[in-house]
Amino acid sequence: MSGPSSSTNPPTDPPSIETPAPNPEKGHQLYACGHCGRRYSRPEHLQRHVQTHTLGRRFACGICGKTFARADLKKRHETNHENDDSKKRRRTTTALNSGRVTHACKACAAARVKCQEEKPCQRCTRRGLTCVSSDAGSAAAMNLVHLSASARSNDDEYESGPSTGPAPTSFPLDQTSLYGQTVQLQSQPQSRSGTPNTGDLTRSEASSSQQPDADQLPFCDFLRDVLYEQQYDQPARMPDNTGLDVLDFCNDTNMELSDMDFGLLDHWNAGGTGPNNLNAIPAQADTPRSDNSADVAHAHIRQNLVTAWDVSPWRWDPVAKDNAFGEQGNLPVSKKDVASLQAEASQGGLRRVVDQRLDFAARDGVLALVLGACQPDAMSSRISGSFPSADLLDTMLHVFLNSHTNQVSDYIHFPTFKLNEQEPEWIAGAAAAGAVLTPIPTLRKFGYALQEAIRIVMPKRFEENNESILNIGLIHAIVIGQDTGLWSGNRRKMEIAECHVNIPTTMMRYRGKFQRSTYPMLSVTAADEGANLEQKWRTWVDMEKWKRFVFHLFLRDSQQSMTALTNPVMSYAELTLPLPASKELWYAKTARDWKHAYLRREDGHVKRAPSVGDLFRDLNLLAENRHRLDVQLSAAIYLQAYWLLILEYRNLCSSYRIRSYTQDPYGNTNSLLNARRHQLLQDLQTFKVTTMNWPEITAQERLLLNQLMMALHISIDDLQLFAGKEGDEQAHRAFHVLQQWVESVDSRAAIWHAGQVLRFAKLFPSAQLKNFYAVGVHHAALAIWTYGVIKKAGTKQDVSSQHEKIYTDGPESMGIQRYINTGQGLPVFRGPASRNGVSEATIENPKAGMEAIHEILQANFGGANRMAPAIVENLCVLIRQLDFYLQNMASQDTSTALVATTTVVSTVLFLVVARALLYPVQPKTIRNPLKLGVYDKANADKVKNLVYQPDQFPGARDVETPYGSTRVYEFGPEDGEKILFVHGISTPCITLAPIALALSKRGYRVMLFDLFGRGFSDGVADIPHDARLYVSQMLLVLASSPLAWTGTNAFRLVGYSLGGGIAIHFANAFPNLVRDLVLLAPAGLIRAASFGRVSRFLFVSGLVPERILAVATRHRLQKPIAASARPSPVAPVEPVTTPPLNVVEAEVNPASGKAVTPLEKRVMEYVRWAVTHHQGFVPAFMSSIRFAPLMEQHDAWAKLAQRAPGTTAILLARTDEIINPDDYRRDALSLVGGEQHVRWRILPGSHDFVMTNPQDILREIQDMWETKA
Known about the structure:
Layout: E1 31-32, E2 39-40, H1 43-54, E3 59-60, E4 67-68, H2 71-82, H3 106-111, H4 122-127, H5 138-142, H6 219-227, H7 294-308, H8 335-347, H9 360-372, H10 377-386, H11 390-406, H12 424-435, H13 441-464, H14 472-486, H15 491-500, H16 502-509, H17 530-564, H18 583-586, H19 591-602, H20 612-617, H21 620-624, H22 631-656, H23 667-690, H24 699-713, H25 716-722, H26 728-742, H27 745-761, H28 771-794, E5 805-807, H29 814-822, E6 826-830, E7 840-842, H30 846-859, H31 870-884, H32 894-918, E8 925-926, H33 940-943, E9 956-961, E10 964-971, E11 978-982, H34 993-1001, E12 1005-1009, E13 1019-1020, H35 1027-1039, E14 1051-1056, H36 1058-1069, E15 1074-1080, H37 1093-1100, H38 1106-1117, H39 1143-1148, H40 1158-1173, H41 1177-1187, H42 1194-1198, E16 1208-1213, H43 1221-1228, E17 1239-1243, H44 1249-1252, H45 1254-1268
Parallel strand pairs: 5-6, 11-12, 11-14, 14-15, 15-16, 16-17
Antiparallel strand pairs: 1-2, 3-4, 6-7, 8-13, 9-10, 10-12
């Protein structure tokens, strides 16, 4: 997949145009390129070669726009233009490793296949096509996705030089994507050589025998070659820097065994902190204890937890090797990592926040800064040869800018932002911040190394010219670098960044940026126009940028204080400046837009907006000025400022050694502190009630609010001490204090707020539960763990089902208040939603609780296989260690354990025997009725009346795949627009016959096929029938066509029922292939109740043996239609008591209310026939119920909103017995962008409306396509 710049300027460097790569036998070459290993005998030749790596393609042809890395190449190219007359003989042959021809013809360019220099080309001649040459050079650029512009050999060596890290020799199929999710494939991992080539790069002409045999290629490479229709001298294998988006289906896995597997390199954290290091922690020997000896058990826990805190990200013990230059070896970046980041950005749909691209001059400025920080000098040449290009830095910058737009305190004004006018220090700091957000370990290392280099050179910039402290861009650069370090998860970087946070604060404090007088109100009238209005807007923008930047520093300072429990650098009392203005004003793109918004929002106001201190005095000012302020940011400022009040209270409590839940040795002091605490709680409760229904207040502010209220009910410092932060002695002292807390009202209130923290953590947008907010989840985990451990060890708790469950992560209720006040009820909270449902954990079972909280953190980043930020990974380690050391809390006696062990062993033996009888081993492929001879002449009379015959449609073919045979039909005019159909769960493609035949008669080229286990396709028994299998089948079907079905907007996709759910995953994975998407009663959001409780339990639980379930399913699918016609509709007397129709039943029996059409009846009869005669049908049906995209596909549906408006149609049936139109409107319409984004229609008929009402469907489809045309 091409990177950000590949669509504009394709690579043009010819192979070996300079000094030929020497043969080692011809002499010793002294000068070697640090990036690719190429060697030269003269330094000027090496210098010229390095420019191709570092400076990019700066020289553009003035005639055709083609770009070059060197001026001499551009000059020679322009000379060729001058001599390009009609008499000049054109080259008719190309080298075997040539990347592309000068100009491909239009037919070959559209099909993305190899063309020839001589016209007409062989492909057009062979196919009878008109060979028309394309005059635009951009056609070659469009083919860059599929063809390498660099001259590379076709053998198994993929790299022309050594990379910066060891190349893995084996690559797993499950990969991590920056914007997607990870799903493990069922097939075995492939491997291929990654040995770098350090020899001669100039190859002799390769013979055909050197090209790899297709039978020996990994399956993904073989399928790629088939799908792209390799022709003649086109290489049979694409270069590694070519993306393979066609195999990255479902946006959740990458089958290409190349660049993404570079993530197997060492983790960024040199200290080795990570989940895998958990086993390295020495475990203490278990010590039996009596039921009344809690102190003994806690002594062992405390000893273990003291060790756990040694790997905390907040503990750093410097060693001799720690210095500012230790990470410079990570600054060179290999081609593998460049391709990985660009592939991730392309696959994830990285949004460009600004329309400018980083130019080469800006990139060279960053390189100069980095070289200025290098030691020793030998490292400079290596960095120069392998420093990222402008395109790669531009991608990193946009990763950072996208992240910046998602944060509460955004301070970059994008309407006036000019990327290439920023200071080099700013560009470097932002690129570093973006690099550490990528999931590629080597690029994360690069980001941290770049951040370290900028930290070294920044002081020199300010010392050279002290006026630089007025340059907001340079101060931005300092803060961006500090933000990267503060939340890096690296102990050294976090401590160094914390040591320097006061530098930008002090700079702005003494420039008066905290004071109200610095931000006067502007006089804006409706008459302001032209330069006067532009000047006022610019003045306002400058003030607002400083204001928002000040508040960003304040939020960061307060968050760091809450994280480390230290005193902040900034005080709320000195922040007299007004709160930030509304987002509408901040995001106004022009001065005129800003003026209209300003007059509307500031009309009638003669005073400036309130400050944070004003909100302390009167919180109603927030509601009164709601239309003037950025409410979300203002609320965050108010809450973070409130932490400073809570910290003052906690410091006093610590000084007097009293808590609200302990005995009072100082009567008057405790009374005063309790009064202060009561006032703080009351103010926060007022804020909660005031903003309860404000849409501007997001999950981030709700989490922070409950974190603050939890801190008023329990000292976080006490929790950390008990967890072993300062050793066993302090943990023992904290234990006795917390014993009193557990029995108090405060403990139950703290647990309630901790549950609320988890509640709102689960509502965070994907990949946003990080940094400070992840620390908040950790604090909640500490509170829950401490309460559960002490409660479980100190008393015998009755956690029977007779107690009412109190969901601490649910909305507030009378049950919650009763639990807090009296302790009645069983407190529980829920884990993240998953495909297997939602797990529950009781507060008094700390082991289950820590597992659930660990899952909450991981679920926000796509699960355990995704690479979360390092700070989150470290917090997960601490939480898992809390779970790990609970093994010393075992209180079961020996006899109970013996009985349990005996029971388990007996049960396992029984299950082993039962499995052999009830779970038969299926073959990998189950042959279809054609292969079994069911349709032979001897059985002709038995099958002649079936609605579905092998020659039912023209253009039939059987496609042999690694999974089995697939029946495909393709018919209609070859030059017609292409349409691919995907049918439902129980019927073959015959159900779509009325629509497909009608469209073929209207000039469309249509393709139908039978899903695995249906019709005349083989069954697949060893792989789950999920979206991955069916999307792979679709790719194989497309590849089997003699026509080109790939390319931009290659075909229209129509999916019915289950086929609709499959089509959604295909369209999400390959949005450029699918021109229009039509979903007919699509699956994906079917509610669980529609399946019936019994049916869902039978299929999903796994408790019912396969043999028994198959018999029951076969019996149900064979039930005949009760009558030849449905009864006339009669309103039920008690419709509420009518049981819902089971989905399995509905797939066999059409809904009542209308007459059964002949086609409907014959199709249902065929289904019953297939149950008996297609041995793969019932296994496929059962597996589809379990694994296919039928339910809970909200994430996949939400991605439809990213498609262009008007390219998606969702057609539902009014009386559908499976797909409820009202439920889908509530669940799906908002996900896909609303009716203004998709074509949403309710048509007559039931779920079988593709057979009963095809004309209505055809009318809507044709209207949609004609409207677009």
